[in-house]
Amino acid sequence: MKYSITGILLLITVVYSQTTMPNYTPIDESEQINDIVDRVLGAGQTAQEMRLFGDYTVEVNTVSNDKIRIIGGNLIVDGTVYGTITLVGGDVFLNSTAIIEGKVITIGGSIHTEDGAQINGSVIETNLKEGLVYREYEQEAIVKGESDLILDRRSERARSDWIFPDFTIFYYNRNEGLVINPINEKWDRRGRSSFKLTTNLGYRFGPGDLIGRLGFERGFGINNNLILFISAFKESRTDDGYRLHKNENTVANIFARQDFLDHWEEQGISAGFGFDISFLKVKMSWSSVDQDTLPVIDLWSLFEKNRQLRPNINIAPGKAEYVESTIATRTKHFNPFRTGFAGMVNVSSYYENGLEVNPMGDNTRIFGLGIINWEFSKGLVIRNRTIVGTSMGVLPIHRMFGIGGLGSVAAYPYKIQTGNQMIQTNIELHFTPEFLDHGFGVFTFIDIGHAWDNSDYTHSDLMNHYDEMFKSVGLGFNFNEDHDDDDHEIGFIISKPIDGPDIIETTIRFGFTF
């Protein structure tokens, strides 16, 4: 507090001395103000800061992670602040939807807070208007209290939509054609209610019908750590989502007449619960659905118009029930090009075509995925993804594991190997733009994968069948310096099989390889 008052008096002294100095030579106004503020707050604090002159608004449903200094303007917060924002000579307006997880400091201004604003970080006011008043605003009552769990980013997690994620607004594939999902609405009093109603509605131009989901959630705990949910839905489903995102699959369909995801139809209801303790998420659900095949449409594309589409999966129409459990975790602030870990395990037990739900029985499918990133030197990163799939018996055709193709083992056809067991590993060495000091990165990689039936041999016997594994190596380039943004990651990959056909495959990627 003493430092803040001293800083204000210094600010007054410097301004006065500048305006009364004889033979004063005018300089750029912004440089003068910056010089004064640097003397008050310390030049060392201004590194990597954004300096703004005038009003600044953090819009609703947006997040500010930056270090910002505002001079001569007001701060209006409708969204979430995780960074540090310092104002000199301006007021702060925390509206009803504002969430402060970081720090807001105003020197010579006032704090105006509406009901509903959440202060989980710190807001500091040093105000000359009321006679050198210093105030530090504490956390709101709704987030006070003791907990056995150490929780972070409480407001973000309390509002995250991990039970019913948004539908992709636009996508295109060989089974559904063009799909548009214009309605993705969530109602929960702008995140302040423990109840949430979710509505998704879209149209498929291939089959010519509506799809969507209506979901209802009830959260418990200050961060909705425990969620009960129920939903009714009609949508396509795939087990191949780990290969690539729907958006990239859309590009492959439009430009090259290739679909790297197998889809089938499900319509029914589900209910269950989810548990979230920041670094760990658990979701369990029961579903009763009508399943059916989604036929292949006459797929239009810009190029490769005569390319033969691979065979479609065929499912006998009928009812199915399944109990599904998913456990997922990742390190805080996970980034593909920083040291960290992410992993998930999915277990599905189902009743289908006369099979009964029997956890860990013949009709149980287990899928596990882990990603490890190691930045062993600045700008040099080793990335590894390992996938293991297993079942206790025979899987239906549309739930079989597959090896080969995009997102699996490069330079091989899609699902060249299938079975009720699988193992796959992808290893990459990245020379990032930060290391190369250019606007692109380079990486080398090796892919290894194998799928088989457990009637042939077990995982423990796998190394005796090394020759049956598919392997490839390659070289890749990426052209996005912002590695936090998967949607704008563009890459070019050249790959070749090891001990396989003498071919070289080139691929354009729109997103991280994993």
CATH superfamily of the largest domain: membrane protein fhac: a member of the omp85/tpsb transporter family
Structural class: mainly beta
What is the CATH C-level name of the largest domain? Mainly Beta
Mean pLDDT: 81
Low-pLDDT regions:
1-30, 39-47, 130-134, 138-159
- Total number of strands: 32
N-to-C CA distance: 49 Å
Helix content: 10-25%
User: Per the principal axes of the C-alpha atoms, what is the gross shape?
Assistant: globular
Q: If helices are DSSP runs of H or I spanning 4 or more residues, what is the number of helices?
A: 5
User: If classified by CATH, what would the architecture of the largest domain be?
Assistant: Beta Barrel
What's the CATH topology label of the largest domain?
Answer: Porin
How many domains? The number is 3
How do the strands of the widest beta sheet line up side by side? 15-16-17-18-19-20-21-22-23-24-25-28-29-30-31-32
* Major sheet summary line: 16 strands, antiparallel
Cα-based radius of gyration, to the nearest Å: 28 Å
**What proportion of the residues form beta strands (DSSP E)?**
35-45%
